[in-house]
Amino acid sequence: MIAILKPGTTPQQTQHLVSWLKTMNLDVHISQGAEVTVLGLIGDTSRVDMDLLKSLEMVETVKRVSEPFKQANRKFHPQDTIVTVDNARIGGGYFAMIAGPCSVESEEQIIEVAQAVKASGATMLRGGAFKPRTSPYAFQGMKGEGIQLLLKAKEATGLPIVTELMNISTLDLFADVDVIQVGARNMQNFDLLKELGKTKKPILLKRGLANTIQELLMSAEYIMSEGNENVILCERGIRTFETATRNTLDLSAVAVLHNLTHLPVVVDPSHATGRADLVAPMAFAAAAAGADGIMVEVHNNPACALCDGAQSLTPPQFDELSRKVQKIREVLV
Ligand code: PEP
Ligand code: MN
User: Fold this and answer.
1) Which of 39, 72, 307, 308 is buried most deeply by CB count within 10 Å?
2) Residues 6+ apart with CB under 8 A from 331
C-alpha cells in the first residue's frame, strides 16, 4: 500500500503519520521527491483502514500495490534511483559504460585492458575472479588473487571495479570491490541475496537464464528487503528455442523494467549474443532503448582468452562501440 502526501506536508507531520503507521506493525518506506512524498507501507496492510488514512488532512491518495515487489516498485519510489559507485553514478540520466575481460587472467592482461577501456570512455572495469563455469574442468578464475589484480588495475586507472561473488563465504575478499555482481546462475540463490542485502555495496543483479522479469524484481526485493537499496539490474539474454545466438536478448525488458521499477537497468550484449560481431549492434539498440548502462566483454587477445573469447571485443572494437553509443545517447537527450 502507498500513501501519497499532499505538497506542503511538513517533515513533522510526515514523522507523526509514520509513527502512527508503525504502531500497526508496518515498515514504512519514505520516498521524498521534489514534488511529492510517497509513503510505502510494507507488511500486513489488511489492518489499515484505507478510508481513515485517506481522510487525513495531509494525505492526497492511498492505493494498494498489487505487485509482490514493493521496495523495487516505481509506485513506492517514483524517481529513478541513482546508484553511486565510487566516482561513477548510474541511473536517472547517468550512463555506465562497464567494460573488461570475462576473467582476470594476469596482472599484465587486466591492466592493459583497464587502460584501454578507460581511454575509450569506460566508467567501470569488469573482470571475473570467481567464474561460474558449465564444466568443472574449465578455468575457474583466479579467485582472491584475481580480486587483488583488479584492485591494482583500479589503482592504475581510477576505474571502479565490478566482479562476481558466487559464495557468501568469500565476502571478506570483496571488501574493496566497488560493485558485487550476482551472476545469472545465482539470481535465485535467496540466501546469498539476503546476505548481500545486509551489506551496503552496490549489487549488479543479472537476470537468470530462464527467469521472468517479475522473478528478477523479486530477487532485487530480497536484497532491498534487508536494507540494501543499491541494486542495479542487468538484462543478459534468456534461453529460448533460438540457437543462432548464445541467448536471446530481451531488449523490451529495458522498457518494461523502467516502467515497473526505479532501479537502473544495464544491458550485457556480450553474454546475450555470445558473438563479438553482434555485440556492437545490440549495444546500440540497448542505448537507444534507454538502458542506464551497458556491460561489454573486452580482451586484449580474444583468441587466447581463457573464457568467452568468441564474444570478446578487442580494445579498438570497443573504442568504436563506445564512441557510437555516446552519439546515440546524445540523440536521445
Ligand atoms: C559474466 O558476466 O561473466 C557472467 C558469467 O555472466 P552471466 O552470469 O550473465 O552468465
Ligand atoms: Mn563471460
Assistant:
1) 72
2) none
Is residue 245 within 8 Å of 273, Cβ to Cβ? yes
pLDDT, tens digit (0-9, with 9 covering 90-100), for 205-238: 999 999 999 999 999 999 999 999 999 999 999 9
Residue written as grid cell 571478506: 172
Which residues touch 47 (CB under 8 Å, ≥6 apart)?
A: 24, 25
Ligand with minimal distance to 163 CA = 1
Per-residue pLDDT for 333 more than 90?
no
Contact indicator for 141, 131 with CB cutoff of 8 Å = yes
**Vertex 180: Cα angle to 260 and 270 (nearest 5):** 70
The CA-based angle 129-317-302, given to 5 degrees, is 45
102 lines ligand 1 (CB under 6 A): yes
In ligand 1, the atom with minimum distance to the C-alpha of 186 is 8
Q: Say how many residues make up the chain.
A: 333
CB 127 within 8 A of CB 146: yes
Q: What's this model's pTM, rounded to 2 decimal places? A: 0.97
Q: Which ligand is nearest to the CA of 127?
A: 1
- The CA distance from 270 to 287, in Å, is 14
How far apart CA 256 and CA 81 sit, in angstroms, is: 16
Q: 277 φ, ψ to 5°?
A: -70, -15
Cα angle 209, 211, 215; round to 5: 145
What is the sign, positive or negative, of the torsion defined by CA atoms of 4, 6, 10, 15?
negative
Q: Measured from the CA of 183, which atom of ligand 1 is nearest?
A: 8
Contact predicate 159/123, CB 8 Å:
yes
* Separation of alpha carbons 260 and 73, rounded Å: 6
Q: Where are the alpha helices (DSSP H) in 37-174?
A: 50-55, 107-119, 143-157
The number of the ligand 1 atom at minimal distance from the alpha carbon of 295 is 2
Least confident of 44-53, 110-119, 193-202, 310-319: 44-53
